[in-house]
Amino acid sequence: MVDLYENILNALANKVRADILKLLSKDGKASFTEIMEKLRMDPKSEAGKFGYHLRLLMKANLITLDESTGKYILTDLGRQVAEYMWSIEEAARIKKGEMLVRTSSLTIEPFDRRKIAEVLVREANAPRTLADAISKEAEERLSKLQIRYLTAALIREFVNAILLEKGLEEYRHSLTRLGLPVYDTTELIKNASKVVLPSPDSVHRLAGDSVFEEYTLLKALPRSRGDAHLAGVLHYNNSQSFVLKIANIQHDLRIFLKSGLSPDGSGIYLPVHKPPLTLKDALSITSKLTSTTLHYVSSSQALDMFNVFLAPYADGISYEDVKSLLYDFIQDLNINQDYRHCVQPIAIGLELGIPKFLEGEKAVGKSGVYGDFEEASFTILNALMDIMLEGDGTGKPFTSPQLILKLRKEVAEAKAQESLLKACSLATKWGAIYFVNMHQGWQGVNVSLCGDLSRLDSEWKNDWELGCLRAGVLDNVTVNLPRIAMEARGDDDIFLERLEELLDLCYEALTIKRKIIEERIAIDGIMPFLGQVVNGDVYYHLENSSLLISYVGLPEAISFHTGLDLTDSSALSFAKKIVQTMSSYAQHAKTGDRLVVSNLTFEPVSSRLTKLDLKTAPQKALGRRKEIPPIYTEFSNTPQYQVLPLKKRVEIEEVFHQMLKGGHLLEVKLAEPPPSAKGLYDFVRKMTESNIGTFCFTRDYTVCNICGNIVGGLKEKCMRCGHSGYKLVKFSRINGLYKPSPLWREDDKWVVLNSQRYLL
Ligand SMILES: [Zn+2]
């Protein structure tokens, strides 16, 4: 035993030998040269001395040579001795008041209170003397706790607690750390497939979302504005990318057809496409344009006048060839996945012929003007609709793109009627087309819709190009109307006053957003595609992009306020007054601010707001029947579950559409069996006489992914093979877009199942 002690103590009596033990306890094993390298010893001059140290350690039975790897490892005894050395060192550190910190850059360093002071000055703008005092106090309190290992996160919380105790709330706010607890991260991974398009990348982005949502509410917006969202007075759509992305963009295809496409905006990182000469190349460039833009927008994109701008390339090509090229294009668009929407909605704006204002415009792709290519524009339109009618390789309908067909008075010839009939076939078969009624004067020269159905028009600067292209919605803030009704307690004046106050908050937040995006493009350089200069002009027109204020819960607010529903004329007239107040507020925005109002949200908003309201107001007070789940009417002015003759629903909706310049939609849900194409055609013609701006028809369908059977209506069991499990997927339109049943939330399911459907 005496020999053993002597050998161990002798072995430890030298710093090099102690360092070798510590090194092997950290690294597990290392070769002769590896150890020398790590201890910064010279392999030439010090090899002999080093060998001597190793032999002594081996003699003391602390290390041994692992024959199989040729590396040194600790023996059991060596491991125990090394542990003992670590704890002595730590005790010494604690005695000296020295603690170890696991830092956020994943290193371990001795505790240094000056770092706390530095952080307080740098991040919170605290005065130097205060920062020093706080850091000293933190050091004193931490050392009393005798903690072995501190983490940077823990020290931060500790400092925050001291700031709170001292009433220094503002400094604490700046030091807040963003991120997810370990438990939440695990839950996120486990539950992601129920809320987003399943993929590892989706989970990754969800985690990032939570950081940026907090950042938006804590840092980007003033405190009280962030609190308004948390309290449910209003809702910032896309708050997870509020500081990073624009909501949507409407492209001008001609730019890229004429000049080619640089997908990274600079040509430095990604290959550049030259201007296309064929339809195949033109579609390829369009597809890459949407793929690259996907990274910049949180909601959607649009390609307006698609069949007009591509017509010169399709000129002289057979219908079959055009269709085959378009089929590939549609498949490509459907790979443009956005984790939240499943497939990111991309709108394709379509014309029944060449609209008057484009007839004389110089064409890109072939010499002449667009008016020369009317026939080719019909070829593209019809081929596109046929592809959508036929569906994918299994006959399943495409849920993207959103076809937007404009119905203009001026184009009423036979060809247009034939195509309109085809559009009606598509609407009655899969619901996969939206109609924009351009017959009413208030729609102006042009209207373009994005994939999220937000609307831009030519009224802006009185110019269809500046108004509708190379711009989009910057973002969307939603007002919670029932909350206002609760506060107004039946007083009209208070209601409208409170509404205006909220509109101020929304407007302010949106101008902050514009400033942020301006910075991202011009200073931070993270949006090079939008900021690229084409033909002497920046591609994305930030100054023409709109600031959108939307609302939810109009019928619920009215019911709370008046006790009546919108079928009552006095209730309807107050509802009109509410929307008028919003619309006139928008019209009186500062010159140069494109402020618009809509009743469309960019994400499900109602559910969150309703639940918050129900914490303070009982269900009954909201004028709701008990069986109706807590969800305010969203994307519509009349609840889909309310039993109303279609004529009445149209009459109520058309009161609002022309005031909602930022977007509106009348969705007509079809009962089974759906009408014939001709029957729907007659209905569509009648609708053009109304003041409804945008409308669509929804046909539900069920797809069996076992036997491939696809039938209309929502089925619980496959009629062909009897499958009733998770591979039987139902499709219905939720907030304007088709969604597969695995991604329906509980509230969505109730609305889908209880909506009123019409036999036309
Ligand atoms: Zn089946």
UniProtKB/TrEMBL annotation:
Pfam families xref list: ATP-cone, DUF7347, NRDD
Keywords, alphabetical: ATP-binding, Nucleotide-binding
UniProt feature coiled coil, ranges: none
Annotated GO CC locations: anaerobic ribonucleoside-triphosphate reductase complex
Gene Ontology biological process terms, A to Z: 2'-deoxyribonucleotide biosynthetic process; DNA replication
ATP-cone domain boundaries: 99-184
Gene Ontology molecular function, alphabetical: ATP binding; DNA-binding transcription factor activity; ribonucleoside-diphosphate reductase activity, thioredoxin disulfide as acceptor; ribonucleoside-triphosphate reductase (thioredoxin) activity
Matches recorded under InterPro entries: ArsR-like_HTH, ATP-cone_dom, DUF7347, HTH_ArsR_DNA-bd_dom, NrdD, WH-like_DNA-bd_sf, WH_DNA-bd_sf
Keyword ATP-binding: yes
SUPFAM superfamilies according to UniProt: PFL-like glycyl radical enzymes, Winged helix' DNA-binding domain
Family annotation (PANTHER family): ANAEROBIC RIBONUCLEOSIDE-TRIPHOSPHATE REDUCTASE (PTHR21075)
Protein name in UniProt: ATP-cone domain-containing protein
